[in-house]
Amino acid sequence: MSAPDSDHGPVIDAFLHTPWLGGDDPADPRGDRVDWTGDARLARVMHTFRHDEAALLSADDLLAAMDDAGTTKALLPAKVYYRATEDGVRAVHREIGALTRASGGRLKGVATIPPPELGPGTYWDVMATVRVLRDAYAEHGVVGVHLTPAPWGMPPDHAWFWPVLATCSELGLAVFVHVGMPGPLWPAEHQDPVHLDRIALAFPDLVIVAHHIGDPWTETAVRLAARHPNLYLCTSAWAPSRYPTPLVGFLRGGWHGTVGAEKVLFATDHPLLDIGRATASARALGLDEERSRAFLHDNARRLFWPEEES
User: Where, if anywhere, are coiled coils annotated (predicted)?
Assistant: First the structure.
């Protein structure tokens, strides 16, 4: 067994908080920039969060913060929680594309889709989501798509998402799914990670990333990651000192022959969490060198930067 990892070794952050990254053109408004301070309903739902213009980080700001933290690469997932037009979603993709192009290969983007206007009752032009995804892949080189079940009002295995899942399987794109009890006051049932089991069974070659860990269903999330070869957990928005006990046990050991550290991706959700503090805390988890390197770097490189594999 190798000694615990120190402050050395490369790090890939598999999930940053993109609504606070990049610019916002009033002539081409982004669908992820919602002013909920003027809406009493949204203010109640999002009472633990805030978005303000001072929080926006440029590509240079982000890369400097990554350098300070020792983070070599990162993923930029688009996040559109509330009603947004197709144009608004495409504007988010354009901004993420601009950030990735300015990064010298250190950043890669993850698309999203226009939220279903009527939740499960949305019935018109379901294939619009596929067109948006295909365009993001062709124009901006995204490596996946991000789904947020709770604010959209339906679980990720709902039939409405199946054209997107099939397209990702066809194109070799990953599906990032928000799991676990949401911080905002959204219905939690849609984010039970057990919904991912049906997707993984139907699309065995599809890479599924369950981000935000899945608490309070962490035991289920761990079992799913061990059960399905292409299903991974991601620690976004969790300070490492607060990782649920089942996840830490999985990272240090495994389950039924699966090495846990090979099925978990490190992420911070920076600038929601400070990338420097979270990365330093993750290095101090006491994992042996092989497990620490897999968790902090190698898993994400293998999945999203395969061109760098030796």
Answer: none
